Amino acid sequence: MKVPFLDLRPDSLGLASELDDAVRRVVASGRYLLGPELRAFEAEFAAYCESAHCVGVGSGFDALELTLRALGIGAGHEVIVPAHTFIATWGAVAAAGAVPVPVEPDGYTACIDPARLDAAVTPRTRAIMPVHLYGHPADLDAVHEVARRHGLHVVEDAAQAHGARYRGRRVGHGATAAAFSFYPGKNLGALGDGGAVVTSDPELAARISLLRNYGSREKYRHETVSRNARLDEIQAAVLRVKLGHLDEWNALRARTADRYLTELAGLDDLALPTTAEWAEPVWHLFVVRTAHRARLQRRLAEAGVETLVHYPEPPHLSPAFADLGWAPGSLPLTERLAQEVLSLPMGPHLTPERTDRVIAAVRESLGAS
Ligand SMILES: *Cc1c(COP(=O)(O)O)cnc(C)c1O
Prior knowledge:
Layout: H1 10-13, H2 16-29, H3 36-48, E1 53-57, H4 60-70, E2 78-82, H5 87-95, E3 99-103, E4 125-128, H6 140-150, E5 153-157, E6 165-166, E7 169-170, E8 177-181, E9 195-199, H7 202-211, E10 216-218, E11 221-222, H8 233-243, H9 246-263, E12 279-280, E13 286-289, H10 293-302, H11 332-340, E14 341-344, H12 352-365
Parallel strand pairs: 2-3, 2-4, 4-5, 5-8
Antiparallel strand pairs: 1-9, 6-7, 6-12, 8-9, 10-11, 13-14
The structure holds pyridoxal-5'-phosphate (PLP).
């Protein structure tokens, strides 16, 4: 039996006819942008996140960048970001014109270490951008405490954490801004690109709405210069269907994670992910660590189990950010994670039989069958 890392086909999710109906409805309507599907999705996703406002945009990257712009953050400013994250977190800061300043993870979860934030603050710092990495919420209370002391905004990168809970509340609840991605492989994914900002601040929501549509509220009146970064009607209709299944899919992910955690516990040379006591993660990824990653990945591939690495190259060592001048060795915890992390198959496509297969293959590969 082969176990794919992920399987996004509507048939595999039991959604073929529901998605077809949603797409046909939009095609037949003749309205493809900024229409009723988007408005309905925004209301439904805001409610899901226990927040007041949602603005749909073109991608997770747009959600982050437009939030920074809407907060007046740009050239001459710094934004504190996790050193260990997908490169888009850093890219959005750079796209807004500001400089990303990395902070190492806490070594317990893979999220930003609040204890290291103070040391990264300078007179140019305007915001902290915690990432709820792998679907596990960052320690928001601790981040907010530092932000309050220095008068900084907190912009959450929630691209991997749709539905996760921090101290019982959904990620996005009470947030100045939480940015979501609907890239197909995310827990809530479109049939293409999409993103959204969830916020409790009506003025910020209005400003982001302006920035996503050429700076215009009213057709052909432009209050500011901006591009187009819209979430289209077909994607909004698809997302409304999928949102109805998100909790069920997240529960399936949690069940798989529980089995991995139980049945892979105590193996030599395999560190399992940890969950903080205040977190209810949504297991976007199930990331293990091993000192012999290449060997484990090869053996799993031979056994038909597909794995991926999130992420092999930390942003500070990427050619994309060479101009910031970070030398190898400067962020050792992050660099070590990049060497050791391996993501096991995770998603609603993992039947109990496929999960059995992954568990057996990992145990065999580590000589523990
Ligand atoms: C996916 C992702 C993004 C970017 O989202 P896109 O929709 O691909 O632009 C940003 N940050 C993190 C942590 C992500 O995982």
